[in-house]
Amino acid sequence: MPKLVLKGGTRPPWVGLAAAVWVQIAGGSSYNFSLYSHLLKSVLGLNQQQLTVLGVANDIGESMGLVPGLACNRFPPWVILLFGAFCCFIGYGAIWLAVSRTVPNLPYWLLWLTHCIATNSNAWFGTAVLVTNMRNFPLSRGTVAGILKGYVGLSAAVYTVIYSLVLKKSALNLLLFLTIGIPILCLALMYFVRPCTPASTEDPSERAHFLFTQAACVLLGLFLVSTTILDATTTPSDAVGYTLVAIMVILLMSPLAVPIKMTICAKTKTVGPRVDSSEPLASGGSDSSQIEPLLTPSSSATNLGSFYENDDASDVETLLAVGEGAIHKKKRRPKRGEDFKLREAVIKADFWLLWFLYFLGVGPGITVLNNLSQIGISLGINDTTLLLALFSFCNFVGRLGSGVISEHFVRSRMIPRSLWMMFALVLMSIAFLLYASGLTITLYIATGLTGISYGVLYSMMVPLASEIFGLKNFGVIFNFMQLGNPIGAVLFSVLLTSTLYDKEAAMQGSITCIGQQCFRTTFFILSGVAGLGSIVSLILTIRLRPVYQMLYAGGSFRLPQSSGH
Questions:
Q1: Higher-pLDDT residue of 333, 119
Q2: Within 10 A of 134 (CB to CB), how many other CB atoms are there?
Q3: How many domains are contained in the chain?
């Protein structure tokens, strides 16, 4: 395949980031399950376990990203987005046909499969924009991951506002909107999400641009929470509702102000020379020596080299021996911080420590999200849209905030990002104990804490994986990590939560369980699981501390020298 042409200049990466914001909002469609799950249950006559299994299908589809991860090294982003739009249209379209009774008696297994296909579109959307923007801004990985993952966290609140103010809380119309609206949006934006040549040195203006984007993101989050509370406590007129939605759209467009400002100002000063980005953006068969490094070796690379000096001290002797035919030269394996292939990464202890730490956090987190409606109803809260909006906003705070905080401390103190994952898991363990108390006030507090913790885990895993295992095969490695999501959902949501819930409901002689006993045992178990995850995170942090001291010794991340593969 021919090389993928990279877009030059300083403005295109920011245009791509602004477009990626909308794609990430579209890629949060799986959060809508709690908004239409009651319709599935009533129209199709499902019990709680069947409904939970459909929720797990959402998680499985969203996390099946290995194929998109491989594809992002073979095809341009617009191809990835196009296929995602196709999955979205087919999947949600089939669900709408079943719920609207246009196609009656759809087999349960086929309904499960359509949920997988529908949310698998999110894996294609997320991989396309995340991998592209991480490569376009390789020096600000934590910040970029925090922003993009933050907007995914806000997507639930965005859909809640649309569901309440535009669709008048019609779950059927919401499914039709997901079927048609998301594919059209992604088709319109796919041209702007494109790989660009990254800067070889940091641009001082980038910090201000990122701060503006983060501030716009925070403002949007506050607006969404305020709008949701307003809708829950009053009955806005149609005019007020549509005005609020228009303001939301303007706030979503605010990241475009950065490239517009750059165009208007037309700065004359030159930034660092731009070099060709690595060819993971391009296709397969080229020599890897042509695609590394993304950046020229720097002081950090030198420090990393000294970190491994015991391995390289006899390079001269080895070369001489090779020349004399005494030994055969072998390709050395990559070190942490260099570019790994998936098969090289999976034999590393750090890979599995990160995977299990992520699994032990997102598994319990997704269990709460999938059952949030039933948790609220069991405690006497029939309208759970406010709970979903609270979870969404706190999820956003965790994603964006952890990106900002970890980026500061990783540059100033060289503290591994896994430390913040440990704090998040401790917080999550406490939240589950609050859930178990069964009080209304602690329900809201616990939902907020769980949302923050869930957001931190998602946001930190992304740059952490890229820093340990490199950007070259980041799409595949990142999506392999995300397999912890559906596996955790099966174990904790289906086999644990729904089983205990249905057992308690049967004792009450109903399919709906009422009372704090419905989820109490589940929450005690999930609290222990999150506590175990915090221990795993501490172990990983101790192991990564010397690596981060080398990678960030110059106060800014620099890609190490090629590992030779």
A1: 119
A2: 22
A3: 2
